[in-house]
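Thread: quick sanity check before group meeting

JM: Hey all, I'm pulling together slides for Thursday and realized we never actually wrote out the predicted structure for the chain we discussed last week. Dropping the sequence here so it's in one place. If anyone has concerns about the input, flag it before I start.
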Amino acid sequence: AVFAHSGVENQAVADRMAGMKTIGASMKTLGGMAKGAVEFDAVAAQAAVDAVAAEAAAIPVLFEAQETDPMSEAKADIWTNWDDFASKAAALESAAKGVSITDAASVRDAMGAIGGSCKGCHSKYRM
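JM (edit): ok, ran it. Output follows.
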């Protein structure tokens, strides 16, 4: 199996990491456009936003089982505060679905909306 991070032995954790890696790559695409480092491409930007929404929808399923691995950055608080964690995943999905890419300015708006949701979860549930 191909793992998102080398050394991960638990497949459930590897699957979670792969989903997060997809979100990260999508945010990198958007960030490059928002900074002007990458030429604006409405199709690529919308695809990145759509990928974030799809992966966000999968987060509760991927984290439902309390799986661990030494390589995991997930805090145990996820499972002790499940409702809050799941609501943060839903907020990320909603933020991404609420974005429509029309021009370079809309990419910056997307970064703000989506990035805030990412930070809200990472600051509480990621080591």
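AS: nice. Residues 23 and 52 are 5 Å apart (CA to CA). The radius of gyration is 15 Å.
JM: adding both to the slides.
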